[in-house]
Amino acid sequence: MDSREAITNFLFIKDSPAIVDFAFVLGSPTYSSIEPAIELYHTGKTSWIVISGHGPQFQNGMSSEAELYKSYAIAKGVPASQILIETKATNTKENFLFVRDLIQTHFGWNNIRRVSISGKPFHMRRALMTARASWPKHIDLIMLPSNHPDDPPSETWWQTESGCHFVMRELQAIGTYALAGDISIT
Question: Are 65 and 28 in contact (CB under 8 A)?
C-alpha cells in the first residue's frame, strides 16, 4: 500500500445510511455537511437533526453556522421542531463536548443507540475519534460525510492543492488532538 492509499484509508470513512436516533452535523463554512442529515430525515431514517457550531465570527449580527444550517434545513423541508442546535462550539472537540448536555436533556443518553455524524469527507476519522472520547461508549456511530464536489473526495483529494492542504492539515490536527488526549485511539 502506498502512502496516498494509507492516508485515504485512514481519514476517509463512509458508512451506509442507517436508521439513527439523531443525525449529528458538524458545522463548517459550507452547507454541504448537512446534506447527509437532511437526506436521512427525508428517507425516514431519523426524526431529529442536531447541529453544532459557531464557526467564524459573523459580521453585521449574522448567526452562527448552526443557525444558518438550521435555516437551510428548514428551507429543504425539515421542520424547525425536529432540529436542535448548539451555537458555541468553535472546533471539533467543542462540537462533541458542548452538545452533550443538550442531548442528555432532550433525549437522555441512555435512550440513544445509534447516531450518524456528518461533516467533510477528510474530517470523518477525527470526528469519529473525538466522538468516541467524548460520548458514551455504547453508541453505534455511523459516519456519513458530505458528497459535494467542492469537498475533496477520497478518490481525488491529492489532485488539487486545496485537497492536499485539507488532508495534510487534518492529519496534523489528529496528531494535535492525540497528544492532548482529546481523541480515543482504541
Answer: yes
How many residues can be counted in the chain? 186
Residues 93-143: tens digit of each pLDDT: 999 999 999 999 999 999 999 999 999 999 999 999 999 999 999 999 999
Cell of 86: 448548539
pLDDT tens digits for 8-49? 999 999 999 999 999 999 999 889 999 999 999 999 999 999
Of the candidates 130, 144, 168, the one whose C-alpha atom is nearest the C-alpha of residue 38 is 144
How many whole angstroms separate alpha carbon 76 and alpha carbon 19?
20
Q: How far apart are CA 34 and CA 50, in angstroms?
A: 10
| Cα distance between residue 88 and residue 20, in whole Å | 24
Query: Beta-carbon neighbour count of residue 178 at 10 Å?
Result: 15
Cross-strand pairs, 141: 115
Residue type, 88: K
- Give CA–CA dist 96/182, Å, rounded: 11
